[in-house]
Amino acid sequence: MIKGWWWTWRHVLGIAEHAVSWRERMLATVVAGVGVLLVALLSQHFMTSLAAPGFWLVASMGASAVLVFAVPHGALSQPWPVLAGQGFSAVAGLLVVHLLGPSLLAGAMAVALAIGVMHSLRCIHPPGGATALSVVMLADTGHMPEWSYVLNPVLLNSVLLVLLAVILNAPFSWRRYPVAWAFRKAGVIKGASLAPESPFTAKQLREAFSELGSMIDISDDELQVLYQALRRQQIHDELNERDLHVGCYYSNGEVGEHWSVRRIIDASEPGARRPQLIVRTVAGPGRGDVQVVLRKVFLSWGKYQVVPDGGVWRRLEEGE
């Protein structure tokens, strides 16, 4: 009961079920620290004048560093979201504060405008919201930023951060930045001159994202590689004779109207001349039908075993 309660809340809170390797954690920590230090030092070096103390580095770059160094393959971490998201968010903050002056309403409006612009230009970058808000907060302290604030320090910081993300991640093939450079090389099969074909087309990918209708923090390249990895896992987990048991349920793994679940209700004796199964369709087309099928026919139909769980069918995990 306690375990079930924990797993329910873990899902609600969004606690990831997969753990990142210690190697990756250490690399992200060290590389991010080095990256932020270099951004600060180089920005200070390139600044020709300081409008106010601390204006050579934007605090939201710390959040951008988390994305480009700890999640280098995320959709929100790529160069366009970093550069455009930070730049246009700074413009949004300046526009609002110059029109409304520094206030609570101006802070909220700056963040809202920044989100709207980033959505429209396909450059969602969460730290951009902090950049827009910081403009209003600076104005509230008596340091009204000029329009040059967009170029220096915001875009200066952003460009340096992107360049350092490319350089510092380059030695590690699995986390090269941007994501297109990581998987373009990693996808090539040893002994082949070209990478394998993608599991779906760019048009299919766009339509699938449009069908979902919400922002998903995964790049197109990473999604292609993830799909291929899942397919390898599915092939590894295909049903065989030892997986067929009387009383158990099996799914054909299809989607939409072709999906179905069947239950084995009886089976021929071991060593029978015609190894057959008696199965009942319990979900999907032909629900309630009972039929006799050869084991090899059932294995070609079925993809994996499932169990009823809280009103839904759940794929049976290995070892359960």
What does this structure look like?
With 320 residues, this protein is of the alpha+beta class. It is built from eleven helices and six strands. A hairpin with a 6-residue loop joins β3 (276-283) and β4. α2 (22-46) packs antiparallel against α7 and α4 (79-100) packs antiparallel against α7. It is elongated and about 90 Å long. The two termini are 17 Å apart. The relative contact order is 0.08.
Protein traits:
alpha+beta
Order of helices and strands, N to C? Answer: HHHHHHHHHHEEEEHEE
Please give the largest β-sheet. Answer: 6 strands, antiparallel
The general outline is: elongated
What strand order characterises the main sheet? 4-3-2-1-5-6
Structural class: alpha+beta
| Count of individual beta strands | 6
Radius of gyration from CA coordinates: 27 Å
Q: What's the mean pLDDT score?
A: 83
Outline of the structure:
This protein has helices spanning 2-13, 22-46, 61-70, 79-100, 104-120, 127-140, 150-169, 179-186, 202-212, 220-236, 295-301, and strands spanning 249-251, 261-267, 276-283, 290-294, 304-309, 312-315.
